[in-house]
Amino acid sequence: MEFLIQNILNGNPDGFRQIIQKYEKQLLKIAYHFIHDWDGAQDITQNTFISLYKNLSKFDSSKAFEPWLYQIHFNQCRSDYRKRKIRNQMMKLFVAEKPSLDSYQVDSDIIRKCIDECTWKQKTAFILMEIEGFSSKEACEKMNCSDATARVHLKRAKTNIQNKLRKLGYDT
Amino acid sequence: MTHKKRLEDYCEREQKASPPPHLIQSLEASVMDAIKPKSHSMVWAMGLVGVMSVLLGIFLFPKQIEPKPFQVESVIMMEKHTAIWIEPISKLTKG
């Protein structure tokens, strides 16, 4: 990876295509889990890669590349998520939500809302470990925290979600 | 169904979600297009030449302002106010 980055910095932007191809699918999926919209996920991932390219010269080669990339991506996701949250709150004032008839869809919508109410770190831990299936070791590298901290975030996320579901009468 | 099971089902469904292929292709293309080095030097050079030529034109060949003769066409007086209507001589002669 170091060689590849050096190559790109030396004026060969085509080498960047390899980085895109290696991570695009994973980053798209993570962004999708945060915002539940593929087009939005594409925009976020595009911004991540552009930001990565612009800051490539600042990369500290003594550290691992992946956590750095994921931190950029999480920041992009968080920024976009905040904008969407404000926009959705504004939209709710004017547009009535359509009732969903599909039971799976109802479940998904409610669970998504419960996940959305978790803290950002809890949500990230839940998406990485429970949905994307990363081990706590892999997740903690991406989240830039210790293994134990990542597991604590996940445990709290699950407890929060389950408490919220229980409150909504879903423990039948 | 317990909330735990619901949560597991949800995670399973979400795991299966995969990005549409066209999205991946367009993402790659748009990123590569965005990072492509653009030739700014040519644009700057053209702009500079344009500005320099305008400045040279202004300073080396200042426009001669020829005084045009005018003629009083009419004088209108209303109480304290006086209006004098002047017209270029050429216009008057044409008419």
Helix content of chain A: over 70%
What is the first-to-last residue Cα distance of chain A?
51 Å
Task: Please mark out the parts of chain B with pLDDT under 50 across 5 or more consecutive residues, or reply none.
Answer: none
Kindly provide the name of the CATH class of the largest domain in chain A. Mainly Alpha
CATH architecture of the largest domain in chain A: Orthogonal Bundle
Detailed description of the structure:
The complex is a heterodimer of chains A (172) and B (95). Chain A is mainly alpha-helical and 172 residues long. Chain A has two domains: 97 residues, Rna Polymerase Sigma Factor, Chain: A, CATH 1.10.1740.10; 73 residues, Winged helix-like DNA-binding domain superfamily/Winged helix DNA-binding domain (Arc Repressor Mutant, subunit A), CATH 1.10.10.10. Chain A has eight helices and no strands. The longest helix of chain A has 30 residues. Chain A is globular, with a radius of gyration of 18 Å. Chain B has 95 residues and is an alpha+beta fold. Chain B has one domain. In chain B, strands 1-2 form a two-stranded antiparallel ribbon. At the A-B interface, α2, α3, α5 and α8 of A face α1 and α2 of B.
